[in-house]
Specification:
Dna Ligase, domain 1; 307 residues; Rossmann fold; binds magnesium ion; 4-stranded antiparallel beta sheet; D-amino Acid Aminotransferase, Chain A, domain 1; 11 helices; 13 strands; single chain; 3 domains; 6-stranded antiparallel beta sheet; binds adenosine-5'-diphosphate; alpha+beta
Length: 307
């Protein structure tokens, strides 16, 4: 079977994508697949030309134009099945503003937030009327914490907005939630199973799970399965499945949450979670008895399933 491995791309997460692709390629080759590599930054025309010889695509792209439905729509046009969510689900999950509206409608708790306006960059006082410090400023359609800041003081809000607007023309401001950071993967199509919950503890020098804390080896501790009362674990897993369903996702996803005094808050859902063997979802799959190779195989199996 011929698998098109799509990695690289043009987003700020290009390097993360390429790192994951090396590992995924080895696993695919070990599993007996014939692997062809395509980098969407340069190889889209070749992908279209060679489409008839491809059985399935494995998309290892993160961020805009990779995780947001664009590539998914392109593969739909070419008639190539792929792992994970389709165009609509990918686009919804990538848009943190729309995703939060859907979570909230589904009864999931989300941090209070407001969309920023371009003019707020020069005078952000409007945003401080409905929300109180500390705040999190984030580009609406990004990943890997790119362009994000935590703002403790009023005077730091304007520069944080300017930074975020460099990454997207939509920016949101959220209340900062103090609590334990958890993430939970789900796997399946019609039947959805939750993976063990992972707790993330960024090193003391990190205020939150930022780009460095995410990718620098040893910067964060990841505990899987997270040490939580059984009832909380079940609730985290239920919320991950609920988030997956309301965003119309498929195959797999990983939802980031914070467990606070006031309960569990959903932050966002990743439709193409990191895929090195030490990434969060593969770690959780391993704790569930699925090796990295078996996980990759399972994702391809789900890609080829009807419905
Ligand atoms: N409202 C919030 N309160 C506290 N921490 C947050 C909040 N939003 C984001 N964070 C921190 O920033 C990290 C990245 O935010 P997230 O919404 O998951 O975006 P992404 O991972 O797509 O960049 C989270 O893992 C968490 O550490
Ligand atoms: Mg996240």
């Amino acid at each position: 079977m011929c698998v098109a491995l799509l990695a690289g791309g043009k987003s700020g997460e290009r390097e993360v994508s390429l790192a994951g692709a090396r590992e995924a390629e080895m696993a695919l080759v070990d599993n007996g697949y014939l692997v062809r590599r395509y980098d969407p930054a340069t190889d889209l025309a070749r992908l279209a030309e060679e489409a008839s010889g491809i059985d399935v695509a494995f998309i290892l792209l993160h961020g805009p134009l990779g995780e947001d439905g664009s590539i998914q729509g392109f593969l739909d046009l070419l008639g190539i099945p792929y792992q994970g969510s389709g165009l609509l689900g990918s686009a919804l999950a990538m848009d943190k503003d729309l995703a939060k509206q859907l979570y909230r409608d589904a009864g999931l708790q989300v941090p209070a937030w407001e969309m920023a306006r371009t003019a707020d960059q020069s005078d952000p006082s409007r945003l401080l009327q409905g929300l109180s410090l500390p705040l999190v400023v984030k580009p609406v359609r990004q990943g890997s914490s790119l362009g994000m800041s935590i703002v403790d003081r009023e005077e730091d809000l304007a520069p944080a907005l300017v930074l975020a607007f460099n990454f997207d023309d939509q920016v949101m401001v959220e209340e900062f939630i103090v609590g334990r950071e958890l993430t939970c993967g789900v796997l399946g199509n019609a039947e959805l199973e939750s993976l063990p919950v992972v707790e993330i503890i960024p090193g003391e020098e990190y205020r939150f799970f930022d780009y460095q804390a995410k990718y620098q080896a040893g910067a964060s501790r990841e505990i899987c399965p997270a040490e939580l009362p059984a009832g909380i674990t079940a609730e985290v897993q239920r919320c991950a499945r609920r988030a997956h369903r309301v965003l119309r996702l498929r195959g797999y996803s990983r939802t980031d949450m914070i467990l606070a005094e006031k309960g569990l808050y959903v932050l966002e859902t990743n439709t193409i979670p990191g895929m090195t063997p030490t990434s969060l979802l593969p770690q959780a799959a391993a704790a569930h008895g699925l090796s990295f190779g078996a996980l990759v195989d399972r994702l391809i199996e789900l890609a080829l399933e009807d419905g």
